[in-house]
Amino acid sequence: MKKTHHIFTTFFIISILLSACTAPQVATPIAERTLTPRPPTITKTPTATPNPNYLWISDAVPDALRNESFDWGLPLTADEDMAVLRLDVNESEPEAEWVYALVAPFPTIMDEVTSEALRATWEGEVSDAPALWVAEETRSALTALWGQPGSKRVRTAESHNLLNLAWEERDSWAIIPFEEIEPRWKVLSIDGQSPMHNDFVAEDYLLIIPFGWDCESPCTVEPPEISSTNRDPEKLTVLVMTGVTAMVRATAYKMEMEGITYPARDIGHWLQNADITHISNEVPFFEDCPYPNPNPGMQPFCSNPDYIELLEYVGADLVELTGNHFQDQGSLATLFTLDMYNERGIPYYGGGKDLADAQKAITLEHNGN
Question: How far apart are CA 174 and CA 166, in angstroms?
């Protein structure tokens, strides 16, 4: 036991000495990592990329032109930036020239305004101007050309409400597309030009609004063909109908003094420029008709046969015979008058040589109407 203990003690001492002779181990420091910061993540805001097939139509485009888009086969977008093809007011490259009309309730006495007066109303320069009603799309179109209206007299409503609103106020105007004219409107001329007349000159008319295409470059779609206008004179028929005429008494006397065509001095061009001019002449022509007396009285009505020159001058195309004085001079004068119309190729209705002749209908056609 003692021997073993001695050996262990000796081994322990030697181990200590060897440990003392060994160079101390220095811990190698771990190199500190340098962290390179990551670049910040940039979130891109998506931008509208024009779709090669998308079509955008401006709010200024009238309904009739807008409705043509249903046949184009192009998808519509409400986002202008998403479209490669756009239809809008376009003065530089117009594809269509849309005609608008200045209208008023039919009982309005005024017949004409100047372009300066209409623009002044829009711009708010006339304090007592009539109310000017427009649909939203018409307002947008005119704003593109004239700038924002400067008057509260310019009022906006749905197109189908304009007529009733104008009639409620009476002292009011409206601007509507030509295709929306109806009988309860009276069309006012502007600087002597009216789209209702056959002598209409578009170049001299204020209310022509140009529309055209704008295609994103490079243009990847062929712009569809659109209607060039909403007023086709080849489809238009102007019919003028007069009230009852009677070339007797003071009227006949004035004709004797001033000339047979005197009654047409101020209105002849309206009648002459119409495609169909209707005259309701309630007085027969009579060879023995006395010289006209301008004083009112109970004298039977008749006209000097020479007075038919007035009907020819204004271009009468049709004569109505329903007036209650047509038989004032008896059957001979009636038959004589009918012969005068027949000789000149002027059709008549509402009267005749017998019942069948008086009951016959007259059909007139013009430009497919």
Answer: 7
